[in-house]
User: Fold these one by one.
Assistant:
Number 1:
Amino acid sequence: MKRDKTSDESAADRRGFMTKFLAIVCGGLATVPPVLAGVWMFLDPLRRRGAAATFLPVTDLASVPDDGIPRQFAVVADRVDAWTGFAAEPIGAVYLRREKGSDTVEALSATCPHAGCFVEMESQERCFRCPCHNSKFTLDGGMVAPSPSPRAMDGLECQVAKNGEIAVKWQNFYTGIAEKVARP
Amino acid sequence: MKPQHQHDHKQTPQRPVGSLGVLGQLADFLDDRTGYRAVMHEALYERVPGGARWRYVWGSSLVFAFMTQVITGLVLWSSYSASAQTAWESVYYIQHEMTGGWLLRGIHHVMAQAMVVLLALHLMQVVIDGAYRAPREVNFWLGLVLMMLVLGMALTGYLLPWDQKGYWATRVATNLAGLVPLVGPSLQQIVVGGPDYGHHTVTRFFAIHAGFLPVTLVLMLVVHLSLFRKHGLCAKQPITRPDAMFWPDQVLKDAVAMLAVMAVVLGVILMPAVRAMLEGRPIVPGELGAELGAPADPSQPYAAARPEWYFLFLFQFLKVFEGWGASGEFFGAIVVPGLVMTAMFLMPILGRWQLGHRFNVAFTFALLAGIGLLTAMATNEDYAALWADRSSFADVEKLLEETENDKAKIAAHFGNDAAKIAAFEARAKKLERIRHSQSFLDAVALAKAEAARSIELAGRPERIPSAGMLELIRNDALSQGPKLFAQHCASCHAHVDPAAPEAEAVLAKASAANLHGFGTAAWMRGLLDPKQVAGPAYFGNTAHKEDDMVNFVQNDLTDAETWKPDDIEAVIAAMTAEAGLAAAGTAPAVIEKGRGLVADGERCGSCHTFRDNGVAAGSAPDITGWGSREWLVGIIVDPTHERFYGDSNDRMPSFGKAAEGSAPILTGRQIGLIADWLRGDWYRPAGH
Ligand code: FES
């Protein structure tokens, strides 16, 4: 038989609802700070930026013979890794190359634009080859089709000082995309 | 609760009253407070329709494998130090110095691989039996998530030793993660722990590997197992045999399977030891189980970079999209794997129809076949040189060399005969594959050698410096010498054992002296040999070819009156003593005699300054301390110094003297490393 709720019963209902509501809100609120703090800290790397791209001295003109053959050089710079500071550490490698009789030096990053392996020189085949997925590049870094790599090797800006010192603007680029986009 | 459970309770063995021992009383006490008997009963007395079967063991084996990983992982954790400067070092210590470390790490490493295999088997069994169908869909999805968690742990674990292998594989993997639309770059940065690989890559991968993933996995596993219990086992149809109880029938089969898994794992770890024993070689425990490569170094190429074997198919898959440009990599790394996972998630829905079920089974088999094929292709590409006969391509090799791989010249060689050119090109392609495989094998051999050297260095009595292992390797003459020499010296100088088969070819290409064994008696003897002094190993290819020294060796030294064989030997002894490389047991008197001859104004001292013979610098190099570290460093720093060749220096750059306003070509440290390497002066463990 249907009957109307007494006011006592409705009050109890309301209280029941309030209790549930408050239980959920309080419990929820209590867990928010640790979760938020956790996410906040976990996302810290997004704030980090790499060292600004600067020209770093690599070698001098005499070490890059003008025979069109690329030579590999380590790029040395001071480096900070989170809390550790490294003085004058090798941070990567470049290939430098000079055409016959030319004083301009071309610099290529040794990082493969496909997925970031270390591209090697194949002296016998007179080309670059990446040991990972076999992307091939010509000695001036151009694509050899068909290639898994979406673009040619990444050229780096390069300056030759009057005294012959070669400096290269060291940068990292996003891999796997057709455009050459520098990482922040 | 299902009725069968009530029925089960009747089977609970009733303990006879009055026979309570102390243990029995304790058990009663515990059961009273905890109700453990009911729980145990619930856990063990599950009905297995159609009886226990071997095909049901995969799930339990996986749980067992995971428990093994938890146990070994926790203990590894207790000795692991997550940072770019300590990860390799602590894993080295676990593997090579801690008691049983090799075994524990070996089990963790091999069991991880076993887990991937078991996953594949479990998945296959579930799909074939149609165990994903209602009401078990959710549990199937959970299983897929569990599978991804396990693969995620495998992927993150690979990096933790922070060796070259893990480092480069992870670079590729995280770069691929960067391709995910929209969030990719941020995702990559979060996982890597910043814009560059370093401390936080290690700490994050460790947290993910040992914290986030396993905790998630345990939670999901609990749900997976309770759902499995809720729905009961999906029995193989038709049921022809009587039902049995989970305990002990199925448990026995499960336990046998676990034991078999463990036996295989131990077998894989111990196999090399057995082989060594049979071949009578000593067993080195540190070399058993999991490998540890040379420490990660972003500036050192690592051409042997490959993922763990069960990810090799993904690695190979990227090569399939050759020539697709950027979309190829996106397809290979993101789209296709994404589609495959989606298809698997849809299986329970598709499986409602009989045809759909058949499709699912076919799809699973096709997938595994594809994975197998890609893995075989990858392996074949890498190891082809082991079984291919390269010598049968000698003519191709020669022609490529002669024509410098110039298409026009090759065409001309074949008189522009298209058929011949095509045949040649096909063979050239084959040769290229063999060559690539060979460079991979060489890279693996090099990686092994570098790893062995790192481990040797780490075991020095002085231990690893606080700056880390990389610092030690960068200061090791044996590791750095050959690289520095190749880069800075080898364009002119040879460094080849004159007795080696390739010596002649190498010397023919060199345009300065062969520095192999520089400072030793053998080297000196060659210099003072009239037949060799103007040869390619000494002055033959230099501007000094017709200088006084050559003249002296060819004309004066051959005069047996003034230069008796004993005299020449004495000079050799004296010079090697200058270098500090005199043969053991050389009599001091002989050295003394030699010094006298060298200083003598009628002999070597007519040109060379030696000790206090008073000859003015400039006419010939000062050979006081010839071949010593100090002397070698000096000549590399500046051969144009009057102490060395002065104005008559032939082409050799002054590596340590800076042109105005710039840095020298080589740092003092690098020059020292070259000198040490040339002199054979590097750390050797005792007993070597
Ligand atoms: S990373 Fe170079 S080809 Fe893939």
Number 2:
Amino acid sequence: MKCPKICFVNQKGGVGKTTSTITVADELARRGKRTLVVDFDPQGQCAVALNIPPQPGVFKLLISGSAPADCINETGRPNLAMITGDRSTATAQIVLAAENRPFDTIRQALKPLENQFDYILFDTAPSVGGIQERAVWAANLIVIPVATDYLAVDSLGKTLDMLTALSKQGWQGKLAGILPTMYDHVTNESRKAYSYLEKNYPETLFTPIRRATILRDCIADGLTIWQKAAPGPVADDYRALVDQLMKLSRS
Amino acid sequence: MDWNRRPTSPLAPHELIPVAQPKKRPAQKRSWEQLPENAVRRYRLPENLYGKICAIATLNNISNVSHVAIQLVDYALYQHYQGNPEFQLSTRPNPQGRKFLLAWKAEQSNWNPPQNKLAPDFERGKQKRKEKVLPGEYGGKIKDVGLRLSTTRLRLKDLADETYLPISDTLTFLLLKAVIAYENGLFSLELKQIPA
Ligand SMILES: Nc1ncnc2c1ncn2[C@@H]1O[C@H](COP(=O)(O)OP(=O)(O)OP(=O)(O)O)[C@@H](O)[C@H]1O
Ligand SMILES: [Mg+2]
């Protein structure tokens, strides 16, 4: 598919959406793919994670009607660009809802960028309301990061319900898979959560990303795992994910 | 904590949501495709050389690039064993490898390939392939190409073994020389009906 758009979504917070988006995006860029990250989270953490200032990129794109190319920020990394988010994204969300903008608002807004990039990745906020659905609608592939703990797995159903509802309404994208994160084989909870996922979602499960404190250090330092701890176990896990996503993007 | 307490939905997500599947390789069902000698083998060829072979195939209305490659290699092998000086491979030892390197031209034979790092380069994940740099005509990008060279592959392999060259380098040399001969009009390709 041309310029696949991959959306990381889960209504639950702190499950590794931002971490996964940034890590996958940076690896794609390092493999020579022109990659754009769009941060639909008002927390603006994609920018923070890459050590660039959060700016109202998404607001400019969706509300101010700026040309898409003018909303893009450089990240200082080759092949990697970003449309940042910040508090104004929350305002954008309200405006979208108030004006009752169509589902494909985001899809249309990003269309002019398809020739410019090989991959577009979306990070989303841990909530529902307007932007998430439109981001999913714009995406070809959905990755649902799920922390391997009880509450995170419990909330997975809600995200799947949203996808089900959207696909009934004619959403054209596909679920790439559920991504277990923060997997820690020594804890019972992690193992049970993983086997629960394995049992209930066998067709749609990625290999898990292990828990690693180094990922937290990376964010604090504004680096990605590829700069800080590759080779290493988590880097291997994420590399396998990138391989899979590239394979799925080819179909 | 009781994982069994969680309700399990009667429908798995892949029954409700379309799930992305990796693209499948087309099945190789035709009987000739399944013969061991007709298996696809991967060779590392210069991209521009491969492009030229594809162009020859297109110009001659030959849909299968492998057929063209076979003809080119057969021609080059014939010339080689006839003793045509253009088709003799000159080689020199490779300081980094077991196999030899092609020495393309006399003036380049004292050319020194860059030393490979001793420790594998893990930085970019996959270990980089050992660079087999060949100067001169070789230039440009190298591409992994799948070809069915049929029994010609065995003769190609014999030559590679005789010269201590990697098979891809041997193939590159033969194809290149044959393409040049073809471009100079020394031979042409002709389509023939295979009797049923
Ligand atoms: N595999 C992991 N091992 C250990 N810590 C992790 C792992 N993945 C993410 N983290 C840490 O967990 C925290 C939350 O991760 P992240 O911000 O990526 O989640 P999120 O889903 O984007 O959160 P939010 O919903 O608030 O946007 C971060 O501090 C991050 O460094
Ligand atoms: Mg986040």
